[in-house]
């Protein structure tokens, strides 16, 4: 099964697959998502652009203890600071945030932020109750090529604190290639890349 998609506006539904993993591949200014069965044809995956109504949800996910523990800024996120920050990200042409839903229930978010003309860095989190199920891999596969088109980049990068083994494994399982190590704020990190040619 093939499903084509083009860059969309806030709140638009980007893809809807019953019982499918969607692996993106570039085709000029659109993408073609070739579906491979997950093994449970009762599942319905959807991806949509985040909007201001998601601010509370994103705040709760951001303050999850595991998320903060694996963050470069482990302090709790205060809502008065979070709300305008979210609005700034949603309105920025250099950022794209996607909500991944399973059977109409939000299970995670993936934000891509431009760090150069051709590269974007990834911030990803999965709801606490939905971890260890492979949903992070699916979220990356569902959103990667969409972000490349929305942001006009050809490379997406995940930077993970090295002790966060689960996230390192997630990027590798999603087909990312490991680059050299990096030190950020005193943390030893592993860096993972995926380019349009890898999709």
How does the major sheet shape up? 9 strands, mixed
Number of helices: 5
CATH class: Alpha Beta
Could you give the order of the helices and strands?
Answer: EEEEEHHHEEEHEHEEE
Low-confidence stretches: 1-39
The shape, in one word, is globular
The CATH superfamily is identified as: Gcn5-related N-acetyltransferase (GNAT)
Number of domains: 1
Radius of gyration: 16 Å
Tags for this entry?
199 residues, alpha+beta, Aminopeptidase, 9-stranded mixed beta sheet, globular, disordered N terminus
Task: Please outline what is shown here.
The protein has 199 residues and is α+β, with helices and mostly antiparallel strands. 26% of the residues lie in helices and 40% in strands. The longest helix has 17 residues, at 135-151.
Structure write-up:
The protein has 199 residues and is α+β, with helices and mostly antiparallel strands. The protein is built from 5 helices and 12 strands. Strands 2, 5, 6, 7, 8, 9, 10, 11 and 12 form a 9-stranded mixed beta sheet that branches. Strands 1-4-3 form a 3-stranded antiparallel beta sheet. β6 and β7 form a beta hairpin. The two termini are 17 Å apart. Residues 1-39 have low confidence and may be disordered.
Topology:
Elements: E1 2-5, E2 13-18, E3 20-27, E4 30-37, E5 44-49, H1 55-62, H2 65-69, H3 79-91, E6 95-102, E7 105-114, E8 119-126, H4 135-151, E9 155-161, H5 165-173, E10 177-178, E11 182-184, E12 187-195
Parallel strand pairs: 8-9
Antiparallel strand pairs: 1-4, 2-5, 3-4, 5-6, 6-7, 7-8, 9-12, 10-12, 11-12
Helix pairs in contact: 1-3
